[in-house]
Every structure is written in structure tokens, then in C-alpha cells.
Amino acid sequence: MDQKVVLPLCLLLAICTIHAAAFPALDTPEYTVLKEEGDFEVRLYNESVWAVAMVDDFSFVHATQAGFHRLFEYIEGGNHNWTRVPMTSPVVTGIVPSAGPFCSSAFAVRFYVPPKFHKAPPTPLEELDLTFERWGKRTVAVRTFSGYAMDFNVAQEAEKLSISLGSSDFAKDATYPIEGLDSYAIAQYSSPFQIFNRKNEVWVNIKLDKSAESLSAK
């Protein structure tokens, strides 16, 4: 039986750092800041396209590693066009809600597809088991944190955002979490070689109520 070797996430990201050197200005999802509130901000993201690797695992780190490995194969030519897709930022791991009594065991690891491929992304090889998500405009509450995103701290950082969001004046104008979407997501921006001033974000999708709709119109 053939066995695939899953490289450590840090090594894969290191390779992607070299890969990205040919594309110094990485594409990132476009957004507008609607409101700054304490230790978080509310953003309106434009329409975007994401390649997605679903992973069943109880470990955030292991799931991100396994999912990113498949996404990395895809951008390195693991598609029917043998097209090399430029690296983008951030890598976003969504925690999928679970109906069971334990912590979530499903994760959605996402790669932001560069705008030039939005209309027709290269078709992934079947064995990579990737799908695509086309996001309409969406409103997201975002809290930034430093260091490495690990199993022991991602839920803590998400809880901090939940507490801040729930105790803010903004809470009365928003509905969250939204049924059918991630409980929350972790966006990782930094190279593994960057030890200090690392950038990670917790994302929570929110729905603005009518009293706050004017924010998105500004």
C-alpha cells in the first residue's frame, strides 16, 4: 500500500516562504474596517474564493498540517492544468461546529485563491480531495494575537474574542455565531522563521442587525 508522507507544518510553510519569494507581494482577502471596538475590530470582507481541505482530527495543529499539505500540493501543480498557483496569505483554519459531546473534530483548512483565478480556479487532482468555497461579502469580528497558534491557545484566544464581543456595545447589533458557518477560525500570516511579532487572528462571522446595517454602507 502506498503511503503519503505528511511533512511537518513548519517545513511546509518554510518551503512556501521560499515559494513566495518569487511573489513578494502576497495576495490577501480585501476588506474594509467598519468599526474598532476595544481589542477587536469588525471588518467587511469583499467577495472571495477559497480552496478548502476538510480534515477530521481532534488537534488543531495536526489538522492544519494535514490540510495544508494537500493545499500545498495543489498550488505546486497538483491540478489538471499543472498550474503553479502563487502563495497567498493568510492560511485560515475553521473550526467546524460539532453536534457531539466532545470538542470539534472537524476542521476546514483554507487557502485564499489569488484574484486572477477567481473565475476559474485550476481543478485539483481528485486524490487531494479539495473543494472550493465562493464567499459573498461577509462581516467578521477579528481579534489579533501573537505567538504560535497551538492546540492549547487557539480556543483561549477565541474565548477572549467572544467575551469582548459579548460585552461590547456592538453586541446588541449583531448575531453570532451564524448557523452553517465555522464556530470560529484562526488566520495565520507569519513565516515559521519569524519568532517575534508574529501575527494571528481569530475570526468570528457575524450578521449585522438592521440597526447596524449603516456601518456596511459607509
Structure, explained:
Residues 1-7 have low confidence and may be disordered. It is globular, with a radius of gyration of 17 Å. Strands 1, 2, 3, 4, 5, 6, 7, 8, 9 and 10 form a 10-stranded antiparallel β-sheet that branches. It has 4 helices and 10 strands, in the order αβββαββββαβββα. It has one domain (26-217): Multidrug-efflux Transporter 1 Regulator Bmrr, Chain A (Alpha-Beta Barrel). The protein has helices at residues 9-20, 60-75, 154-167, 213-217; strands at 31-37, 40-45, 48-56, 91-95, 106-112, 130-135, 138-145, 174-175, 184-188, 200-208.
Short précis:
This protein has 218 residues and is of the alpha+beta class. 22% of the residues lie in helices and 29% in strands.
At the first level of CATH, the class is Alpha Beta
SSE pattern? HEEEHEEEEHEEEH
Strand proportion, as a percent range, falls in 25-35%
Number of helices: 4
CATH superfamily heading: Regulatory factor, effector binding domain
Query: Care to count the β-strands?
Result: 10
Rounded to the nearest angstrom, the distance between the terminal CA atoms is 57 Å
Radius of gyration: 17 Å
Structural class: alpha+beta
Sheet with the most strands, sense and barrel status: 10 strands, antiparallel
- C-alpha geometry: globular
Percent helix, as a range, is 10-25%
Write down the CATH topology.
Multidrug-efflux Transporter 1 Regulator Bmrr, Chain A
Number of discrete domains: 1
Extract low-pLDDT stretches.
1-7
What is the mean pLDDT? 86
Named CATH architecture: Alpha-Beta Barrel
